[in-house]
Write a structure and sequence with these properties.
By secondary structure, the protein is mainly α. The protein is built from 14 helices and 4 strands. The strands form 2 sheets. The protein has a two-stranded antiparallel sheet. A two-stranded antiparallel ribbon has the order 3-4. The N and C termini lie far apart (about 100 Å).
């Protein structure tokens, strides 16, 4: 006998049991699944706010199920998760660019002051322009260490209470310390390139530095990273060979590592700003 009140509690429970029994019976029926999805889409289109509120309430009351579902989905869709994470990080950086820049500047100054004194300066030549300074691994192996902890070493140093084995150097002294002309062919190609862009006595276009060990090629107007990605060369000897094979194209000049790094990282060089 049907219930007199269609919406009474007993009638609602009875219909729920009947629907559940029917779903269990036809759970492998593709036609049933398609009809059910269609009904759900139509109902959602008529009143989306109702379904969103209901979904929000269910997720609030079943946090464990939600977490397990999310974890299972993430394990089965690793590439999508990475893609979403990259987009989210990029969006955050664009939105908080100025805050991130100021925070990085603050951490960097803290590290340089600890290892290089106040005001910080290069341990070899005494250079004091902060745009030219960098943290150096005294005993080498810096590339492998940065691969493990990330390119920005300052947060790691602060987190680990400023461990020993580090010093402050300018970019020129850092490169000169690690400089080695691997063979005669390398020396010949590099010297030929520097003479072409810097004259018979190669020197930095910005500050006039003549020490050939600290000179490098700069992309006038920037864009070096994008060009390296496009043509398959990153830096160093591969780049020198690319310039030679292409007849030393225009758009390049000779800078020392100090001026080159300051322009690339900060968009200006202290020498140029003085002028």
């Amino acid at each position: 006998m049907p219930y007199k009140d269609y919406y009474c509690e007993a009638a609602v429970e009875c219909r729920k049991r009947a629907h559940k029994k029917y779903r269990e019976k036809h759970k492998n029926d593709e036609n049933y699944k398609e009809r059910r999805r269609k009904r759900q889409r139509e109902a959602y289109q008529k009143n989306p706010q109702k379904f969103l509120a209901k979904n929000k309430l269910w997720r609030k009351n079943h946090p464990e199920i939600v977490r397990e579902t999310q974890k299972r989905w993430a394990l089965n869709n690793i590439e999508k998760v990475r893609s979403y994470a990259r987009k989210a990080i990029k969006k955050y950086h664009l939105k908080h660019r100025e805050e991130i820049r100021l925070k990085h500047k603050e951490l960097r100054l803290q590290v340089l002051t600890h290892y290089g004194g106040s005001p910080p300066k290069c341990a070899y030549c005494g250079e004091s322009h902060i745009e030219f300074l960098i943290v150096d691994h005294i005993h080498g192996n810096g590339i492998q260490h940065r691969k493990q902890i990330g390119a920005n070493i300052c947060p790691w140093l602060i987190k680990n209470n400023f461990p020993e084995g580090y010093q402050v150097l300018c970019w020129n002294c850092n490169f000169a310390k690690e400089y080695s002309e691997k063979n005669q062919y390398y020396r010949k190609v590099r010297l030929e390139m520097l003479i072409h862009y810097g004259g018979n006595l190669p020197k930095c276009t910005c500050c006039g530095e003549t020490n050939i060990r600290v000179l490098a090629i700069d992309h006038i107007g920037g864009g070096g990273y994008g060009q390296g990605k496009k043509f398959g060369h990153k830096c160093g000897f591969n780049f020198y060979l690319w310039l030679r094979r292409n007849g030393y194209p225009s758009g390049y000049r000779v800078l020392c590592h100090n001026c080159n790094s300051a322009l690339g990282l900060y968009g200006y060089c202290p020498h140029s700003s003085k002028k």
